[in-house]
Amino acid sequence: MEALFCIGCGAQIQTQEKDQAGYTPQSALEKGLETNEVYCQRCFRLRHYNEITDVHISDDAFLKLLHEVGDSHALVVNVVDIFDFNGSVIPGLPRFVSGNDVLLVGNKADILPKSVKAAKVKQWLKERAHEEGLRPVDVLLTSAQNHYAIKELIERIEELRKSRDVYVVGVTNVGKSTLINAIIREITGNKDVITTSRFPGTTLDKIEIPLDDGSYIFDTPGIIHRHQMAHYLSGKALKYISPKKEIKPKTYQLNPEQTLFLGGLGRFDFISGEKQGFTAYFDNNLQLHRTKSRGADAFYDKHVGGLLTPPDKKELEDFPQLVKHEFTLKEKTDVVFSGLGWIRVKGPARIAAWAPQGVAVVTRKALI
Ligand SMILES: Nc1nc2c(ncn2[C@@H]2O[C@H](COP(=O)(O)OP(=O)(O)OP(=O)(O)O)[C@@H](O)[C@H]2O)c(=O)[nH]1
Ligand SMILES: [Mg+2]
Question: What is the value of pTM for the model shown?
């Protein structure tokens, strides 16, 4: 029999090993073949019950795919999450794409505050890309979720690909599959063909979508960065790091030696400087708590999993300790908790940002 692949995640369909990628019960396979729509059991569960089955995906497979991109003559669409640019960077991508054109797509435009101008974000993305050694031929902003700028994206891809294949690449959870679903829906009317979810590592292998002229658009699995918050959270807490709506920034006037807890996921200390406003950009559901820095350690130990949640009591078992990162900031700077959000500091100020061990904290030129 010819190899079959799950149209939801790209894994090769098999009926033998229950805990391996692509497993499909024989009866489901036969049913799927009748309608020409074969989904594996993992996709079935994700699509109908929003339940994840863990399967192992190796970084090797991801590297192999990047080499394949380098060896082909194609347009590369690099999707990044504008809410988490640092977490979206694929190390070494400029080297892998070699001579191929790159179109940079900043997805999840819907969660940026409306007051932010698209042109400014595009310019900001271009500068950040250049810092990473990437020279995209163009930058677009989309919302795959709200179907925003999808027509524009399709037109731009058509112009740039010049009859070549298109590889859609990016780290996990930036919305590659949601974006391709939006493209498919725009062109054919079919909805949600590819499986998407808030869990990292949804797409398991390359998925081929044929185009009119015999070339393909490829969805690809995203690498999972260990320094992203998503790596350390399970089901419920993941909601807080994948905002679905426009973020409402909250400004806190802080005196030195005051602390903000970001639920139980992080902590921000204003160490020294003049009293000033700090603007927090996080999922609207994440509760921020202000306390005195003195005693904040004990406050955290007492309340994490309760008042300071997520993580909840159950998730707390495997949740890493918070680690402190100190910065002296002279001008307007974003302090980014990788994959969670950021706090804009006006400066000058000395601050400390605490994140779970392994999760990166970086500073960058303020986006807003
Ligand atoms: N707010 C918002 N969320 C989005 C958007 N696009 C995707 N998402 C959400 O982001 C999460 C990840 O989406 P996917 O399309 O599965 O991401 P992916 O890049 O294919 O991830 P992998 O397959 O793991 O590499 C899901 O919860 C989506 O609903 C968007 O435009 N706006
Ligand atoms: Mg995907």
Answer: 0.92
